[in-house]
């Protein structure tokens, strides 16, 4: 029988060792938990198997740091499962909500710079709350497939910690919100599936894709893991099994900013411009830019309470790009991030939105429908336009867009967005880049080709 990987404290180097410790590593990879009193063997996703040794907290390797508003970047006090006095020593607030932040895979074995930023934003929005950072850095710095398997053990640690809080202090799980990034999102899902009562909410921040895209629900984040599960997908490029972020929906609401594949401001040109403007202060964001954008979008929702970004339900990102999904009827639109409206449907809800390249990320979405009229039937492709919107509060000029096709006597719909709030639309100016349309032969053709009608709908105000 394999030894219990958690009960025996090993030197950290043994985790990555290939000499003499492989049987211990296999024990962790297969997520086997022998109960030493009965000799039975438990899988990580088996609730019934936890009953006999459930008060044995020695096997928990993850650490639970209660961060403070004054020092959001320091681990100054740890909550220790089984040690009742640790909560009093760390000034845990028993009457307020608790955020549990779970980091992802790390190459350096150190916390990434987003961790204190998220902690700080949570405290600014909820000053009386408890923000706990789960430290599983030793397991998270292994080869990716090894760390991916460790998410089951981390999830088990978190579940035992939450159950202890509920049983020992009668702490209500309705106050618990888990936030997991990348591999941490799946650890949060495992934790939610193992707690005896359901936690209130899990937010998945671009859950990791490799080894999880086709995984069974108990080993990854899924809608069953909390009363409400919301997910941000920000880096879903490539084939499903090789995408950095998971592509399929895994929550009650799955939001795909900018289509989910690539985020604005994350290309090399934008990176150089940002460094030129702001120096190297945010250069770390550029390394894992699109993947980590999920976190910064959530931070944005905490800091800019009065400016929530709106997302819109749509079957495909192609339909969204045509502006066909800007309806708010029957819960078809929602806030991104902290103040999301909890909508639970029988099937996953996929939602889309555009964002800016920098915080605050909110933009304003418009559907524009143009009807072209012509006495002669004709079609042109890839036609560039400029559109300007003038409103009661502001204006947004020369927004460039390209219509893949322009045909006479047809209506075409497309999406545009502005970074400024123009208020109610008063006037629209549309410019067709005619040089691209007329060729020498066209000059001798006696035809008329006009724009007969333009309709505009605002996603944010729902006005037409």
TrEMBL record:
EC top class, as a word: hydrolase
Post-translational modification comment from the UniProt entry: Tyrosine nitration after lipopolysaccharide (LPS) challenge down-regulates the lipase activity.
PROSITE patterns on file: PLAT
Catalysed reaction equations from the record: a triacylglycerol + H2O = a diacylglycerol + a fatty acid + H(+)
Gene3D superfamilies found in the cross-reference section: alpha/beta hydrolase, PLAT/LH2 domain
Record PANTHER family: LIPASE, LIPOPROTEIN LIPASE
Cited NCBIfam families: lipo_lipase
Role noted for this protein: Key enzyme in triglyceride metabolism. Catalyzes the hydrolysis of triglycerides from circulating chylomicrons and very low density lipoproteins (VLDL), and thereby plays an important role in lipid clearance from the blood stream, lipid utilization and storage. Mediates margination of triglyceride-rich lipoprotein particles in capillaries. Recruited to its site of action on the luminal surface of vascular endothelium by binding to GPIHBP1 and cell surface heparan sulfate proteoglycans.
Full protein name: Lipoprotein lipase
């Amino acid at each position: 029988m394999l030894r219990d990987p958690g009960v025996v404290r090993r030197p950290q180097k043994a985790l990555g060792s290939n000499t003499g410790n492989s049987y211990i590593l296999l024990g962790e990879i297969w997520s086997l938990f022998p109960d030493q009193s009965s000799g039975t063997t438990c899988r990580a996703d088996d609730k019934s198997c936890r009953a006999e040794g459930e008060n044995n907290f020695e096997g928990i390797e993850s650490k639970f740091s209660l961060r403070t508003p004054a020092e959001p970047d320091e681990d100054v006090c740890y909550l220790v499962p089984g040690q009742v006095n640790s909560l009093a020593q760390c000034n845990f607030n028993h009457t307020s909500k608790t955020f549990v932040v779970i980091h992802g895979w790390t190459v350096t074995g150190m916390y990434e710079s987003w961790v204190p930023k998220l902690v700080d934003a949570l405290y600014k929005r909820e000053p009386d709350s408890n923000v706990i950072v789960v430290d599983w850095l030793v397991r998270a710095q292994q080869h990716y497939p090894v760390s991916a398997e460790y998410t089951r053990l981390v999830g088990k640690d978190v579940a035992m910690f939450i159950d202890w809080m509920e049983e020992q202090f009668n702490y209500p799980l309705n106050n618990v919100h888990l936030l997991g990034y990348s591999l941490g999102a799946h650890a949060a899902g495992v934790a939610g599936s193992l707690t005896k009562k359901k936690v209130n909410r899990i937010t998945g921040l671009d859950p990791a894709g490799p080894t999880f895209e086709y995984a069974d629900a108990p080993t990854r984040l899924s809608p069953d893991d909390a009363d409400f599960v919301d997910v941000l997908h920000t880096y879903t490029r490539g084939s499903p099994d090789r995408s950095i972020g998971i592509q399929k929906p895994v929550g009650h609401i799955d939001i795909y900013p900018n289509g989910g594949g690539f985020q604005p401001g994350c290309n090399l040109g934008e990176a150089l411009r940002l460094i030129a403007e702001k120096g190297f202060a945010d250069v770390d964001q550029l390394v894992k830019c699109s993947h980590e954008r999920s976190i910064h979008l959530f931070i944005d929702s905490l800091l800019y309470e009065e400016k929530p970004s709106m997302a819109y339900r749509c079957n495909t990102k192609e339909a969204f790009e045509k502006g066909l999904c800007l309806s708010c009827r029957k819960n078809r639109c929602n806030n991104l991030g902290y103040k999301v409206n909890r909508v639970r449907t029988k099937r996953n809800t996929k939602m889309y939105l555009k964002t800016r390249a920098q915080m605050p990320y909110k933009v304003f979405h418009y559907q524009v429908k143009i009807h072209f009229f012509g006495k002669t039937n004709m079609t042109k492709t890839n036609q560039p336009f400029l559109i300007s919107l003038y409103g009661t509060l502001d204006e947004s000029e020369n927004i460039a867009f390209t219509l893949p096709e322009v045909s006479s006597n047809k209506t075409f719909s497309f999406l545009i967005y502005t970074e400024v709030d123009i208020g109610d639309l008063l006037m629209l100016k549309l410019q067709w880049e005619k040089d691209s349309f007329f060729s020498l032969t066209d000059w001798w053709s006696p035809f008329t080709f006009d724009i007969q009608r333009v309709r505009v709908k605002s996603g944010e105000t729902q006005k037409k």
